[in-house]
Design brief:
The chain is mostly helical. The longest helix is centred in the C-terminal third of the chain and has 35 residues. It has a two-stranded antiparallel sheet with strand order 1-2. Helix 1 runs antiparallel to helix 3, helix 3 packs antiparallel against helix 4 and helix 4 packs antiparallel against helix 5. It has one domain. The radius of gyration is 21 Å and the shape is elongated. Strand 1 and strand 2 form a beta hairpin. 70% of the residues lie in helices and 3% in strands.
């Protein structure tokens, strides 16, 4: 597959059942629906995380008494948005890569590994630390302790790395570098 056609849609099947026709306007193919599901799931899963660096420092400076609730909210976002929608993106991506036999393409394998790493970080790193930060912030109230700040620092750093990984995955999926 040449770099300019890697990941592009293969020719549409002419056989009946290849897609659902909506009059003369459009034909909808299941593969295309799955691409939309995959992209939407990534946006829903990770979109909100790009707002954390904007509002968390502001809340820390201006409303530290609210941090316990904010960390609880982050935990709920992880549990009810990030994990389920990242999992949906993973399953849709597995279908997409398998349907077109793209598993050997770096623009598939690199984001696949990144998504697995992000899911692992969610459960093994972020969830327990957000619970700890919520407890510390609740204990500390408006005057945050050195213990709170020390616990928050690695979460901030790993959060920035996680956001960078999301952007790398998006870039690789769109630009398709390293394609044979």
């Amino acid at each position: 597959m040449s770099p300019d056609t890697a990941g592009s849609r293969p020719p549409r099947p002419d056989a009946p059942g290849g897609g659902a026709t909506l009059g003369a306007m459009a034909t909808i193919y299941f593969y295309d629906v799955m691409v939309a599901v995959h992209v939407a799931a990534i946006v829903i899963a990770f979109g909100v995380t790009f707002a954390y660096p904007v509002f968390m420092p502001w809340i820390t400076r201006n409303h530290p008494e609210s941090l316990a609730v904010m960390h609880e909210v982050q935990g709920r976002i992880g549990k009810f948005l990030i994990t389920p929608f990242a999992t949906l993106a993973l399953l849709a991506g597995i279908y997409l890569a398998s349907d077109r036999d793209y598993w050997k393409q770096p623009w598939v394998t690199i984001p696949f590994v990144i998504l697995i790493v992000l899911l692992g970080l969610g459960g093994a790193f972020f969830a327990p630390r957000e619970r700890k930060l919520a407890a510390l912030a609740k204990r500390d109230g408006a005057t945050l302790s050195d213990e709170y700040h020390a616990a928050a620092k690695p979460v901030t750093i790993v959060g920035a790395v996680a956001s960078l990984l999301v952007l790398v995955a998006v870039f690789v999926m769109i630009v398709k570098p390293f394609t044979a």
